[in-house]
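Example 400, ligand magnesium ion.
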Amino acid sequence: MLIGIVGKPSSGKTTILNALCLTDAKMGDYPFTTIKPNRGMAFVRINCYCSDLEGDCQPRTGICENGIRFVPIELLDVAGLVPGASEGKGMGNQFLDDLRQADAFIHVVDASGQSDAEGNQTTNYDPSEDVIWLNSELTSWVSNILFKDWDKLSRKLDAERSRTVEAMADRLSGLGATINVVKSAMMESNLLEKTPKLWDDEDKNVFADKIRKLMFPSVIALNKADKKSSSENITKLKKRFPDETLVNTSGLAELMLRNADTAKKIKYTPGSREIEFLGDPTNPDKSLNIIRAIKENILDENNTTGVSKLLEVCVFDILKLIAVFPVEDSTHLTDQDGRILPDVYLVPEGTTAKEFAGKVHTDLQKTFINGLLVNDNNKRIAATHVMKNRDIIKIIAAQK
Ligand SMILES: Nc1nc2c(ncn2[C@@H]2O[C@H](COP(=O)(O)OP(=O)(O)OP(=O)(O)O)[C@@H](O)[C@H]2O)c(=O)[nH]1
Ligand SMILES: [Mg+2]
């Protein structure tokens, strides 16, 4: 799973990546600081089972702190997009291409209204515009892929209409589309019964928009929420886009908190409201004044910086993933080497026990016999059993 971070230049995309992944990618208060995409590993929080166990769990990747497990997920921060990107403006074609492998988007909006659509400094810009034009550029990007040389293809499909879904899926194979996604989008656009030669511009746009939403579901970060001018804009944005998922964030505050934690100046667990100042309280470190201001103005006021929540909303509400723990020993919750709860996988809702086995190892899917649901008194489950969030499963497979 890969989450793409998109938005206009200077909205704070790289700052959010750095805050979530503790990467050191270049940030700047000028447009197009990022040109080549930056990748990073972020972590979502899951309630672990280790607090009920005698020993501590031993994650193979990520960490577990006070019963909270941090599970890795990959992020991709790309260059800023500007209006006209789908037609190549601001190297938009190339930058959009970088997003092909993404499974969902975090769209970072500068809620302060202090940067225009191209990321240049201004005042009183309406950030609602960014939501509208960015969605429209993304839809045009999909549309350009779908309808390239359309006259030729639609004429061909006139003779073989039954091949339409397949042909559209072929076009989108670079984006990782499946036949099912294409079929759903065509059905939702009322195009399954209409011959492609008769699709008008409106039909094509509706279809491309459905594909965008199915293939790249999005959450919007209302970023720079710490700035004074943001609060009125945030109220307006929430009113104007009731169907979008919106989360207030301050990427910069989160980055400062995490950096101060890494420097051991404070103890801060991402996503929490509390921070603990380390060091000698009688000799206050002046560089911590900014952290005190973040505590007072952001954490005490709004509980969190919103950045961990943003990722969690993206993983659990938008991508609809669940966390499942595989174990070998259902009594001690260990793997074959005695490591306690070493792995947890994020898989799509609806994943069956057998499909899950395939995520652990392709051979396990082939040799799958059944499973034990360890968190439900070792209840025996069949291949088609649908897994739930925080299930612990012991997979029983045939010996090869
Ligand atoms: N006040 C405030 N400033 C922020 C916040 N997030 C980012 N910034 C500032 O906004 C500017 C742009 O940040 P970047 O993270 O480089 O933005 P970007 O979207 O990656 O920009 P490009 O790579 O040019 O597209 C920097 O000066 C950041 O310090 C925030 O939450 N609050
Ligand atoms: Mg950047």
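Summary: Residues 128-146 form the longest helix (19 residues).
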